[in-house]
Design goal:
heterodimer, A: alpha/beta, N-terminal domain of TfIIb, Dimethylsulfoxide Reductase, domain 2, 25 helices, 27 strands, B: alpha+beta, Alpha-Beta Plaits, binds iron/sulfur cluster
Chain lengths: ~700, ~150
Amino acid sequence: MKKSVYSICGMCTVRCPIRVETEDNKVTWIEGNQNLLGGALCAKGSAGPALVADKERPQQPLIRDGARGSGRWKEVSWPTAYDYITDKLQKIKSEYGPESVVLSSRGGPWQSMYKSFIHAFGSPNYTNHDNTCGRNTHHASLSINGVGRKGFVYDIKNANHLILFGRNMFSSLRIAENLQTLDMLDNGGKLTYVDVRQTITGLKSTRFLQVRPGTDYALALGMIHEIISREVYDAEFIERYVSGFDELREFVKQYTTAWAAKECGVREKAIKNFVSELKEDMPKVIFHPGWNLARYKDSFYASRAIHILNVLMGSIEQKGGLIIPKGPGDCGVKGIQNIDYSKPDIKRGDGVGWKYNHFDKGPGLAHLFFSAMESEDPYPIKAWIAMRHDPFCCMPDPRKQEKYFEKCDLLVSIDAHYSEFGWFSDVILPESTYLERDNAICVQKGPKPRFGRRQKALEPVNDTKPSWQIFKELADRLDMKDFFPFDTMEDYWKWQLEPTGFTLKDFEEKGFIPLSDKPVMYDPKELDGQFKTPSGKIEIISKKLSDAGLPSLKEYESPIRPPKGMFRLIVGRTAVHTHGHTINNPLLNELMPENSLWINVKAANKLGIKDGDLVEVASESESYAGTIPAHVVDYIHQEAVYMLHGFGREIPLQTRACHAGVSDQKLMENKLDDWDKAGGGINLAEVFVVVRPSIRNSARRVEL
Amino acid sequence: MNKYMIYLNGKRCIGCHGCEIHCKSNKNLPVGPQLCEINHSVMVKVRSVPKTEFAFRSCYHCEEPFCVPVCPTSAVVKREDGIVYIDQEKCIGCMACAGACPWTIPQLNPETKKAIKCDYCMDRVDAGLKPACVTKCTTHALKFVEMVEK
Ligand code: SF4
Ligand code: SF4
Ligand code: SF4
Ligand code: SF4
């Protein structure tokens, strides 16, 4: 039977709207939703059906049948797997208390389900992957604007000038945002791109500033200096909404453009010309605060400086600027309802909310649970349930993490893929792929808000289940019977929509429910109440930071240079893979089976490395090393080497990905404890590696 | 005269290789054959920004295709509208077409053991749709151009 289903892509966490045609439970066509993306989809999105067909993903529940990480598994039924998990959870609960169980996820719009589960179980310890993603920028935005990094959306299409600090958006790919950026460029808009290397995004730029690694903060300070001294800022906006401007003016006096140019290794004239352009372009100027910047030790402050640059432009709630996302309420519609269990009144195991008061309490910080595992302070951590989260692939030094996780009595991985963590865990519960599962209705905020829905296009082809069902069935066995009082996702959707006045039929026409056909905008002169800081103003000086003993305006410190023979490791993304999730996808693996090491041509010459040669990349103490081809290029800073994240996997059942390429997180030896006390993120860019020509480049080969 | 062509707007292309997978996924191709490809030139500085050029290549659907006459079973056909395609029923997988094509465009499908090449997604075109690579290009950089005689 032929069917056409609107849904939401799940090959990466951008979650583009899609439409899928199927026949006899096989995908015959998949495209971006014509109503939102005009059909556009990326390579990963088109490789979704290949994921469904791939036999190298977990196809039924597995229980470990050997030592942790030995890769020996017993195939079991769902009830057996559930019994195993719930017996252990009950035991841990009675012995150590419910709080000794942690649940982590990849985040996203369906977190409330996972969060509710762990809260209903009695633990406050919900966490997600954001400590290695957007936490620094998120906390930077909170400290200044009182709203997190999702507190603004960017009206790029209508902007005159977009400034990206290391945000390689055409490789990270958010299709809707990419279309906006290309439209802006087609309309004569400008793109200033700052990075340590030239990227696909930089190729499209009108100004490319290649900086020394770790100097983004210096560049932003130099820009602020020039903007303030030439009065290229929106004085009215600042007067109305901003506190601490005078302190800022004093603070940046020392950071002249000449100084910044020297520190970053760019021409001073480039900064001056840039500011002259801003004068013409404001307020339609967007400084993207970095998805996650590159996580240097001062990235929190770099992101704060970038947020301040936006404030100076007065671009908030202006066409072509930063727009406050609107929700159902702004369109006179009541919001959907979600199951929700309030957080138990117990201290978090990661210290967020009592030891660290300046961080967002929502997901806390995943890496801070390790010290609790080690010291049992504030209490022991005895179980970890990873929901689509792969701590070994996200966080540094998986070998060290293993030592901590060994202290747990139960490790569970719920995932559609084999994850590196899953391979080490005790139980793998196979989630159905995004094409085979329903997810809850979610609100997609923005200038034109809507309700979105992932709807299964296929029935599961293996013995897998959607996550809602997994949590419901676990809850039933844990005597949390009313956790999810619905038998099907359809019943839940209906209940979710009840307050809104819409019905499921309203999804049929476009695949989503539009709540407004025109952008909803606030009056930029009436923004009081939008900035949720203690004073209600945009705060350049934050009391929360001062209370935590942290400066709001931090003196710049020059990044250290790599030790002799070493390079700073910079990692990033490509348009054809999603971190470690897709490396084993047959079609995407064919496009890019391994990563390579980008190295500057001069640095390579010194080491006798030619383009395409194999090179050995080793961690600081050389406890981990791998061999990959060198990509020798002009446009990368001499102090840096660059590689793609997600490779160097070691799961034998993923035959295509196993041992292909080098793993960045394994190179990050002893870096689990190197995190930013102000921003909360792990300092993933403060890592140095050894590079040398590989002995495998032999010119001779003798046989017999 | 050829009625159709695929045009790449290099200003919008981001080299994401989406089109290659859109094509493979539409034709349900296994690992191996690839009916279109995106390539780019070495970076050179243009007004102090390192730039590159992207190029899209599928089959040229030649006015006088070399692949058509060499086929022993007349499986390679040029249609009225210019589209050159390989009739999968007739093809015996001898790959003479690939040998005759100056760019070795036809490829072996290892699953069916027959030659395949870009056919401008003629089933879609005949149904009034656009080719897969064009419909789903990540940035709307690819255009399916219908040429009109003046
Ligand atoms: S960017 Fe690509 S993989 Fe990610 S959601 Fe969109 S189509 Fe899917
Ligand atoms: S899908 Fe479009 S943007 Fe991507 S490589 Fe192909 S032509 Fe270029
Ligand atoms: S296969 Fe080669 S010879 Fe035949 S039409 Fe295409 S480009 Fe021309
Ligand atoms: S026109 Fe169709 S067959 Fe030809 S390259 Fe594009 S998607 Fe492939």
